[in-house]
Give the backbone structure.
Amino acid sequence: MVTRRELLEIAAAASVGAGLPRDTAAQRSSPPVDLATASLADVSELVRTKRASPRELTAACLARIERLNPALNAFITVTAEQATADARTAEAEITKGRWLGPLHGIPIGLKDLIDTAGVKTTAASALFADRIPTEDAEVVRRLKAAGAVILGKQNMHEFAFGATSVPSHFGPVHNPWNRNVVAGGSSGGSAAAVAASLGYAAIGSDTGGSVRQPAALCGIVGLKATYGRVSSRGVVPLAWSLDHVGALTRTVLDAAIVLQAIAGYDADDTTSGDRPVPDFAAATKKSAASLRVGVPRAYFFDALDSEIAAAIEQALEVVSRLTAGLQDVVVPVSPEVREVLLIAHQVSEWTGGRFDVTFGVLSDLWRFDHDQDNTVPDMAEVRRRLPLIDYRALRIDDPPGTAFLTRPGMRANLGGIGKGYAVDRGVDILRRRGFHDFMIKSGGDMYVAGRRGGRPWRVGIQDPRGPADRIFAAIDLSDSTFSTSGDYERAFVKDGVRYHHIIDPTTGEPARGCRSATILTDRAVLADGLSKVAFWLGPKDALALFDRMPNVDAVIVTSTNEVVATKRLQGRLQLLAAPTDAP
C-alpha cells in the first residue's frame, strides 16, 4: 500500500524530474512544466519522450486529490493504490519501448455510474452505495487497453437525474472556481476534478447536457460524441435511447485524444454504431479559415443574463476572425415536433386560447414537472409572467421547417399533449407490423385496438377521490383513444386547498372546474389536449364544444362531484358507483 510519505516523496520528485531515463538535451531545452496542471497532450508528449513518468503524473494528481478533494467533493472513491500500481506497470512498459499511445500512463477519472470491476459504482445513490460490479464497462476496457491510469470514481447528481450535482448520497460537488456555486451536472464531479487538475481527463455521461453543461460551468471542454460512437454498455442508464458517453478535458485536443481511445463499435451494445473511427486529433489541426459558422439566436439568446451575453459576443468575435464568417440561422424542428405544435395550435384556436402550450413560462414556478415540495409560488410573480403566455406568438413554418416564439422570455411546454402523440406513434408502428388487437397506455393516455377475447375492450374510469384502483364508470371501446386528466395527479393539498398541475393559462393558477375529464376520440394526441381543455373551459362550455366536434366524447366529474357526459355517450356509459366525495 502506498503511504502518505511515499506519495509526497513521489510528488516532490516530479518537480525535480525524477522518473524515467531522460533525453537530457531535450530536458535542458524544455521550459519547466507544472505536471499536475499541464494539458493531457503536453504530459503525454513528456511521457512518450521519457521526460516525465506515469508514476510522477499519478503522484502529482493523487497529491492534489488528497489536498483539494475534501473541499470539492469531486471524488467518491479514490483508487490510489491501484492507480500507483498501474502507473508503475505503464512506466515499465514504456521503458521497454512498448508505448501504447497518447493515453499510456495518463491518470484520468470516471463518473461513478461507469462500471469498474471490483470497485464500487454507486451512481451517487444510497441504493447502490455498496454495489461492486464484476465486469468493466466497455469504455473502461478501452481506456485500460490504451494504458490509461484510473484514479477513481467521481461524484455526480444522483442517478444522473439532474443538472447540479447537489443531490448525491455522498454530499454535493463544489465548483473549484467558487465553492458557493454549483459545478453543474450530472457529471459535476468529473468537471470539477478536471478543472481543479485532479486528473488530466474524465469520462462522463450526457443524456440532456450532463457532460457539456458542467464543463461550461467549470470552464473546461465537454464533448458529447455522436450517438453510438462510444459504447454505453456497462454505464448505469438514465434513458438508454438518449445516453451518450463523453470526455471532459482542459483542451479540445485533449478531448480528441480521449475520444480516439474510447470510440469504436461494440457488438454487444445494441446502440453502438458500426462505422470507421477517424483521426480526431488530426482534425483539430486543420484550418478553420474556410468554415462558415451559423449562430442560432432565436430562443437560445432570449432573456440572457447581460454578463453571459457579453461573453458570448466576445467569443463570437474571436470565432469570426478564425473562420470565413458568422451567419444567423434558425434551427429546424423535427417533423414530429412540428406536427405536435400544429395540433396544439389548432386546439388553441378551437378553445380561444384556453389551451396554450406557451404556459411553460410558469413551469419553474409551480414545479409540478420537477421536485414539487408543496410550495405555492409567489402569485405576484405568476401574474407578472402571464403576458408571456400567448399561443399566437408561436411561429410555425416561417421559414419552412422551423418553429420559434417571437417574444423574449416565452417558453413552450408540450407536456399537456406530448404523451398522446407518443401513443399515436406506437399505434402506427404496431399497425404497420400487422397487429390488430392491442392496447397501448402512457400515463393517463390509452388506445385500444380491435377486440379482446372477441369482445370490445372494457375500460374503466378512475375515481378521482377514491383509491387508485377504484373505478366509478366503464365503457366498451374498440379502435379508440381514452385519455383522462385529473386534479389528483401531480397535486398537493395545502391549508385545505388542492393545487394540481393543470394550470389555467389565463390566471396562472390550477383550474378549478373539474375533478377529472376523460376524452374518447380517434387520436390520442387530440384526446390528451382536450382532457385539459375541460378544466379550463369548465364542464358546461367543454361539453358544448365536444358535442359540436365530430367523433369526440367526454365524461367529466365536476368540482361538485357530479358526473356529466356528451350526448353521444347516453346508453353507452355504465355508472358503477358514485365517485367518492372528498375535498
Summary: Residues 425-575 form a domain with the T-fold fold (CATH 3.10.520.10). The two ends are 65 Å apart (CA to CA). DSSP finds 17 helices and 21 strands in the chain.
